[in-house]
Amino acid sequence: MNPIPPSETGGQVPGDRGTPGPAAPSSERPTDLDVELFVQLFDVAPTILTVTDRDLRVLAVNQTWSDATGVSKDEAVGAYIPDWYPTVDHAHWETLRQVMATGRPVHDDEVTARHPRDPSDTRTWRFSGYPLRDAAGTTVAVGLAAVDVTEERRAQAQRDLAWRRLWLLSEASGLLGASLDLDATLREMVTLIVPEVADVCVLLLGDGPCPSGVEPDPFVLRCAVWARSADLPRPPDPDRFQPGSEIDVAGTAVTRVFATHQPLLLDLDEPPGDAGPLRAAGLARQVGLRFAILVPLLNGTDCLGCVGFGLTADRRYDEQDLRAVTELGGRIAAAIANARAYEAQRAAALTLQRALLPHDIPALPELDLAWRYHPGTGGTEVGGDWLDVIPLPAGRVALVIGDVMGHGLLAAAAMGQLRTATRTLALLDLPPAEVLSKLDTLIRGIDTLATMIYAVFDPGAHTLTMANGGHLPPALRRPDGAVELLETTDGIMLGVADAAFTETQCPFPPGSTLALYTDGVVESPTVHVGEGTEHLLRVLAETTDLSTAADQLLALLDPADASDDATVLLARASGPRDGHPTVINQHYRFSVGR
C-alpha cells in the first residue's frame, strides 16, 4: 500500500496525533454511487413518487406508485398520466402544468378518482408538486409526491355522518317538543328530513292505532305530509300526495311493517312485493327512486302509521341509516300520540266548558248584551274563563266575569263549581263584596286560584255596584262617548288568603256601556297588555253596535297565537222600552282539533 502523501493529509503522516481539519467542499459531479443511492431512495420511499415532463408524460415512478396503482413501471413510463385517471377534474392537471410554467410548487392538493385497475374502488390521494431544474436552473420536469388518504377520509366521513345523525335527532326532538300543532310539526319534520336523509319522505297515518300482528283494513292509509328534493331528476305530480289523500297499501311492504312492527330496508329495483308505498302509488318509478326505508310509527304495541324514506341512485341506505331513521320514527310516533292525546283531552275540556257556560241568559228589558268566548289555541289547553248574567229581585241584574287559573279539565271543572256557587249566592241577593268573600272561602277549599268581577246593575237607580277580586278593571263608555277604565277597589284574587272585599259604585244611565273582559282579550305572546287595553278603549269609543264591537275586540289577537282564553261581556243600559226585549247576542267559538 502506498503511503498517503503529507499534502493529502493536511500535513500529517499516519500515526501523527491531532484532529484533521474540515474537508474542503467538492465541486465534483455526483459519483455513480451517489446516483445509485438516490435511485434506491426514490424507489423504496413509502411515498408515491412520480416524475413527469411538461406534457404530464411519465418519466419515472417508484415502486410504491406501482404497488398502489397496479401499473408496472414499464407500463407507466412514457404514458400520459391523466389517461390513468379519466374522472379527475381537469383543474388538477392544470395545477401541475402551472408548476412547470411558473416554477412554483403546489402543496397538499387532494384528488379523488377511480383506481386505475379497479374502477369499483374509489381512492383519494393528497399530492404535492415540485419543479425539477437542470444545471442552468430551468424547470424541465415536475416531481409528484402523493399519499393515499382514502381510509382517513372515509373515517372522517363516518364521523361526519354520525355527527349529522345526532344533529338530526336533536333537531327533530326540538321540533317535536316545541308545539302540539301536529300538522305544522310534521311539515317542519319532513322539511328537515329532505334532503338531509332522503330525496322523498312520505308519512302515512291510519285512522286509528293498529294492534301488533294486524294488517290495516281495508289497506288504506292517509297521507299526513310529504316532501321531495327540489332537484329530483323527474319531479312527481304535486297532486299525487296531498295531505288527507288515501293511499292503497294492499300487497306492499307497508302491510308487513304493520304486521311485524319492524322497519324494512328496500332495494326498489328488486322484484315486486317489497316496494312499499312509494312504488304502490307509482311514485318510485315516476321520480326514479332506487332505495327506501319503511319505518313503523309505534306507540307501545300499536302502530299509528308508517314513514317512508326514499333515495335516488346517487346515494343508498345502510344498516346505520336504518337504525337512525328507526329512532327518528319512534320520536315522530311519540309526537303523534301526544298530539292525539292532547286533542282528546282538549275536546273533553271544551265539551265540559261548553256545557258549563251559560246558555239560558234571558233577554232583559233594560239591558242590551253581547258576549264572546274563544278558547286558547296555538298549543294551549282550554282555560277557566267564564261569564254570566243573572236576573235579581226588583229588576236588578248581576253581571259576572271570571278566570280560574290553569288549563284543561281541572280548570274547566273548577270554573263550573265557581259559576254554580256564584248563581246560588246571587239568588240570595247578597251584596257584591259578600258574594266574593264567600266565593273566596269556596275556592280555597278546592285548592285553586281565580280572579272575578261581580257587578250589580240597578235600572231604577241607574247605578252599577261592583266588587273586584284581582281582575282586570272594567271599561265604561258614557252616553257622551267618553271612555275610561273604572277605578275599582281591587281586592286580591280569590283563593290566596282570607281577604276582605270592598265595593265601588258608579252611575250607569241609559246609553252607558260596560265592558267586562279577561286577560286573553288584551294580551298575548305578541301583544302587550298596554297595546291591548288601548285597542279595547278605542273600539268602545268608535263602535256603537255591541255585536260588532265584541267581534272587533277579539280581532286584535291572532287565534293561532292566542295563549289564553278570550272572553268579553258588553252590557248597555237601554232604559224602559215598549214591546219585545232585545234579543241576546251570544257567541261561543269552540274549535276542536282532529
UniProtKB/TrEMBL annotation:
Region annotated Disordered, chain positions: 1-30
GO molecular function: ATP binding; kinase activity; metal ion binding; protein serine/threonine phosphatase activity
EC number: 3.1.3.16
Pfam families tied to this protein: GAF, PAS_4, SpoIIE
Record InterPro entries: Bact_Sigma-Reg, GAF, GAF-like_dom_sf, PAS, PAS-like_dom_sf, PAS_4, PPM-type-like_dom_sf, PPM-type_phosphatase-like_dom
Domain PAS positions: 34-78
Keywords: ATP-binding, Hydrolase, Kinase, Magnesium, Manganese, Metal-binding, Nucleotide-binding, Phosphoprotein, Protein phosphatase, Transferase
CDD domains on file: PAS
Catalytic activity: O-phospho-L-seryl-[protein] + H2O = L-seryl-[protein] + phosphate
Free-text function comment from the UniProt entry: Primarily acts as an independent SigF regulator that is sensitive to the osmosensory signal, mediating the cross talk of PknD with the SigF regulon. Possesses both phosphatase and kinase activities. The kinase domain functions as a classic anti-sigma factor-like kinase to phosphorylate the anti-anti-sigma factor domain at the canonical regulatory site, and the phosphatase domain antagonizes this activity.
NCBIfam families per UniProt: sensory_box
Protein name: protein-serine/threonine phosphatase
